[in-house]
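Fold it.
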Amino acid sequence: MVVIWAANYSVLKIAFREIPPQPFNAMRMLIASGVYLYAIREGRRRAKAGLLSPALVDVVYTKHDLTTSDRLMLVWLGVVGHFGYQMCFVGGVNLTSVSNAALIIGATPVAVALVSAGLGRERLGWMHWVGAAVSASGIYFVVGHSASFGGATLRGDLLMLLSVACWATYTIGASRLMARHSPLYVTGMTMTVGAIPYTLAALPRFLDVHWAAVSAWTWTALPLSALLALNLSYLIWYMAVKQIGPSRTSIYSNVVPIVAMTIAWLWLGEPLTAVKIAGAAAVIAGVLLTRLAKRPAAVAAAECVES
């Protein structure tokens, strides 16, 4: 998941030269939604026919009926976690600096841990908090060194903070739904819900694209980015959320800028500095501390289900 998301930064950077971010993202989300809906239907058919291994059944098949509360939660998470997150992220990156954007996004694991602990969903040990702090400091050295806040970039900074809030809300809310429903179902349905308003909002920008000039490389990158970054990686993310909890899963997002930096250096020729290397070491150390920590205590499954 980390490698795919990290490589996707370089892929998108090249693709955005020909297709603006909002139309490109809208098409990615539509492709990913179609794949999810097909996989959900096929997974249900195979599970009922006994064609899936026991290990896969819980990943792809939802055994429980949807309650009214479940349906409302799916819509809410789709709007917040896909429509809201993507809109804020793309808008924020456009209005603020790359350093500011990456530094704020690097705070996502801390936001997830704080909200999750505040809601009583997980009880975090001291080593987890130390790991999060060390990893966050590494993010600062990698992408936030000399970053400035406020002024002309204030609106973009606020949008990036909103994107962090959207992703933290999505991660924690989805983990609650996955106490009863499969990661494939929750991820696929919320992606589909979010893709509809996102595409409608992006429609005016489609008129700005000179489609005849789009290269074969970009047309190839579009479905690959959808299938790998939005389908496979999202499914891995929420399988991990279900197994080890949102806080321990979210800490791995701190590794993404490190791998992305390395790939950009090898592929795009972006420079590596001593400060970035030192920050990478801190990020990796923070992740290792989190892995060595005891698993956070989660609330019982019954507490995750609406009555």
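Residues 2-304 form one domain.
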